[in-house]
Amino acid sequence: MGKYRKFLIMALAAGLVTALMASGVLDYADLAVSDRFYQSRSASDGEIVLVGIDQKALEDIGPYSQWGREVMAAALAALNESEACRPAVIAMDVLYSGETDGAGDARLAEEAGRYGNVVAACAAVFGSSLAEAETGEYYLDNFSVIAFDAPYEALGEAAEQGHINAMLDRDGILRHHLLEIGLEDGRRVPSLALKTAEMYREYHGMEQGALPPADARGFWYLPFCGVPGDMEAISLSDVLSGKVPADYFAGKIVLIGPYAAGLQDSYLTAADHAAPMYGMEFQANAIQALLWEDYRREVPDGIQLTALFFLLLLALAGFWKRKVRLSTGLWLLLCAGAVGFCRLMYDRGLVLHLLWIPLGVTALYVGCIAFNYMQASLEKRRITNTFERYVAPEIVREILREGTGGLELGGKLTRIAVLFVDVRGFTPMSERLKPTQVVEILNCYLSLISDCILKNGGTLDKFVGDAAMAFWGAPLPQEDYVMHALKAAADMAEGSRALSQELLKRYGRTVSFGIGVHVGEAVVGNIGSAKRMDYTAIGDTVNTAARLEANAPAGTIYISRAVADEAGERIRTTSLGDTVKLKGKKEGFEVLCLEEIL
Fold first, then answer.
1. d(C-alpha 495, C-alpha 378), whole Å
2. What is the pLDDT of residues 458-488, one digit of tens each?
3. C-alpha 297 chain-centroid distance
4. Who is most buried in 119, 315, 534, 545, counting CB within 10 A?
5. Across 258-272, 388-402, 434-448, which has the greatest mean pLDDT?
6. Mean pLDDT score of the chain, rounded to an integer?
7. CB-CB contact of 92 with 72 (8 Å)
8. What values do phi and psi take at 557, rounded to 5?
9. What is the spatial distance between Cα 592 and Cα 572, in angstroms, rounded to a whole number?
10. How many CB atoms lie within 10 A of CB 537?
11. Three-class SS state of 116
12. Helix, strand and coil percent figures for the chain, each rounded to 5
């Protein structure tokens, strides 16, 4: 595969995985895991006290629907008992938008304005409307304020205002806080949490802190400091009864709001996807983050997707055609490193998608493992199909079974039967016939030779011109391997007679075989160099078989005494004694002529 094609395939794979992350298909899982990983509990500084309209208050005072505004007025009076013990801020997480009875409205406004430390709730209703751009063109604004519920006039004049809008993300989880709302008349209405934090700092003579990094719509990522129920909560009933003295709240932030399930002011938040958090708990977490200036900035998806693409490209380069062990190590390193990096960046104020890198890398890791397996299977099949044309299937299976070790240099001493066969009269014939005819005749004889060897379970070692070498007993052990070698030799002799008659008719020429067989120990294995090797046998046994064949007349099979002894009475032979002189052999080496297999 060319390097450009390889790079193109890798870029395409990385791009597809990146596009999958960008599509949002995995966002729900990513958000859930990120919330669990990033959001950690930390004790608040104790400056925020929750006064809840809880079940006890409902039992002591009566159903909430029957409460008049005098109840909240009484609560403000109890908290603001005197200048010396008043809270820094009292934030009412209850919407009073519209006048009811005059006395109750007037008293609530009076108590809210006594010390100027009360924040009244307001809320906006968002929807779609046409808006005019700076260019003068109109567009559909899907985040437009279509209605605004402000405190009734007297309360609005007596107290500060802050909106209590809680906007869920697309997965139904509350993890962002809306810093402020822009109204059509140009006014900017801060959130209840922001206004409360500003008034707290002002009360204690502190400088106003930096605002959190908000997006174009005013939302910022809220790091919760606790799960539902973590913050201190006091029943409104205990405040009204004086059970909790007013000086307990001195200089603190007091949040008053619904704290009972039936009042339907609770949300699933990033702090806990199972237990709902009451609205004023959410406000308290936002106030605490603003006071601590504990902000996180969500890195834009475009930047993360770009970084993801290049990281996946590098990961693919590491996985491509690597061993499973190396790929697995790299996969684990990248996944663990990505998680650790996300944690490090979060601690430094940046929020990243926790699962994008691990899931993307895992997808490519699994894909590469599957691809490498398929490639290995195809390569194995290709090797098998190719090598089986040249060597016995047993050799191929042995090499494939041993893996790369089967292709290493080296051999082992093995007792084998070796057969050499040579075409007699081939050289004179090649001088008289056309080259194409010579090749055709040679292929016919060599096909006969290879068929006889493979049919009898032999290993076809090599062709050398018009000669061939084969052996039995390796690479796999064989029973009665000497007889298999002799049967192959007899089949060659028999087949050559029929083939000679056919060639005589076609070309007017014929040839025959000279065959030699010997048995003994030889070194069998991969012989050669690291770049070019042959699976073959070497040693004196091989040399002796070659010399038996060299001395065998046309149509004759010469064997050694060792072969005859192994075959026993299953063959009929004629001993030539030591009349046939083999090069390199001492006097007395007996040569026999195989006449018949019984």
1. 37
2. 988 888 888 999 999 988 888 999 999 999 9
3. 27
4. 545
5. 258-272
6. 89
7. yes
8. -115, 115
9. 10
10. 25
11. coil
12. 45, 25, 30
